[in-house]
Amino acid sequence: MKRISLDISKAACFLSEGAVKAYEPKVKEAQKALEEGTCPGNDFLGWLHLPSSITKEFLEEVQQTADILRQECEAIVVAGIGGSYLGARAVIEALGNSFGWLRQDKGNPVILFAGNNIGEDYLSELTEYLRNKKFGVINISKSGTTTETALTFRLLKKQCEEQRGKDEARRVIVAVTDARKGAARTCADKEGYKSFVIPDNVGGRFSVLTPVGLLPIACAGFDIVKLVEGAQEMERACAPEVPFEENIAAQYAAVRNGLYAAGKKIEIMVNYQPKLHFISEWWKQLYGESEGKDLKGIFPASCDFTTDLHSMGQWIQEGERTIFETVISIEKPNRELLFPSDEENLDGLNFLAGKRVDEVNKMAELGTRLAHVDGGVPNIRIAVPELNEYYIGQLIYFFEIGCGISGNVLGVNPFNQPGVEAYKKNMFALLNKPGYEAESKAIQERLRIDN
To answer: Catalytic one among 229, 289, 291, 325?
Structure first.
C-alpha cells in the first residue's frame, strides 16, 4: 500500500538555504521529549502510540455496539463538542456520499451531530426532525457537564425515552465518557447504558482513534479496522528513528516553524475536494488549541477551493504576505465523470469535452499553486492517494504527530487549553450558576461601568 506524501519544496524556497534542515536538531529533541514523556503536558501523551496499542478485540466490541445501533436506528445523533465530534464528522463526511444525509444511504442510518452549539432553532429543528423516528444517541463527554453537550443530551434522552420507551431507549443510548467519575459516567451506570471509556491521557482533539471517533465512524458504515491500520502505518513512518529526510511529520513541523519565524503567521489549510471540509475543521482545532498560547502560535485558517477562490482568492493572491498554504490533494477520485460535448458550445467549454472533471480540478489546483507561489505565498502539498479509510487514518496520525512535534519546537505545551475556560466562567456567572456568585457580582459591576 502507498502512503500519503509531503512536498515542501514550494515552501522551503521562501526560506534561506538549509533553513528547514537547520530545524532537524530541534525536531529530534521534540520527538525525544514526546517519546520519553519529558515535554510539557506529558500526562496527555496517550495518543502517541495509540494506533499500535489498539487490539482486534477492542475494535470488535466497538463494531458490535455500532451494529446494534445500525440495526435499530434510522438516525443516530452524536452529541459532543470540539474534539468530541469534529474527528468523527471529519472522517464520516470525507468518506461518505455528499448527499447521503438526505436519505438512509444503502441501509445506513443518518448520522447527525448536535451538542456543539446552543442554537435554539437548531435544537428545535433537530427534535422536530427526530419526531416519530427510531433514533439513538452517542453521548460523548468526559465530564458530562459541558454546557452545549449536556443541554442537548438532556433533550434527546427525554425524547428518545418518550418515543421508544425507557427500556428500548436504554439499548440505543451509548455513553463515551470517563472511566470512573463525572455526571455522564454516573448517568450511564444508573441507566445501564453501554459505555466506552475516554482514556485519561488522551485529550479531546487527539481522540479520533478512541471510541470518541471510532464508534460514530463504525455506525456510519465505515471500516474502522482499515482506519486504524492506516494510522498504524503512519505511526511507523513518523517514528523518531526514521531519518529526517524521510519523516514527513518532522519535515512538516520544521517548515511550519521556519515559516513562522520568517513572519508567516497564518496557515491556510486548502482542499480541492468538498468532502474534506471537516478535515480542515478538525485540523483547525487540533493546531489552534495546541499551539495558540503564551502569545505564540500560527493562526490556522481554511479554504475550500475552488469555491473560496471566488471569495478569498484576491486576498490570498495580493493581500498581506503573512500567510502560507498547506494543500491536501486527492490524487485519485472514487468516481469518474466525463465532461460532455455540446453542439452549440455557447459556454465555450467544448475544449474540455471528453475530459474527466477531476482533470479540470487538478489543473485548477496546479494553476492556483503556481499563481500563489508567484504571489509570495509559500505552499506545502500533502498528496493523498485516494479517499478511503486507510489513507484517512494515515492523514489523522500525520497531523497529530506533526502537531505534537511542532508545538514542542515552538516552546508551548501542546496538550493543554487554559484559555478555553475563560468564556465558560463568564457564561456561568451571567446565568447565575451556583458557585459563581462572586464572578457574577464582578461582571454585573463591570457591565454597569461599561454602560
So the answer is: 289
> What is the rounded CA–CA span in Å between residue 11 and residue 376?
10
Q: What is the rounded average pLDDT for all residues in the chain?
A: 94
Catalytic annotation on 162?
Answer: no
| Model pLDDT, residue 423 | 79
CA 115 – CA 126 distance, rounded (Å): 11
Query: In this structure, how many other beta carbons lie within 10 angstroms of the beta carbon of residue 383?
Result: 15
Which of 120, 128, 310, 343 is labelled catalytic?
A: 310
Q: 380 near 10, Cβ under 8 Å?
A: yes
- Looking at 75-84, 141-150, 230-239, which range is the least confident one? 141-150
Among 49, 296, 355, 424, the active-site one is: 424
Annotation says 166 is catalytic = no
Cell matching residue 152: 442537548
What one-letter code names the amino acid at 2?
A: K
The b/e string for 73-106 (b: 16+ C-beta within 10 A; e otherwise) is bebbbbbbbbbbbbbbbbbbbbbbeeebeeeeee
> Is 310 annotated as catalytic?
yes
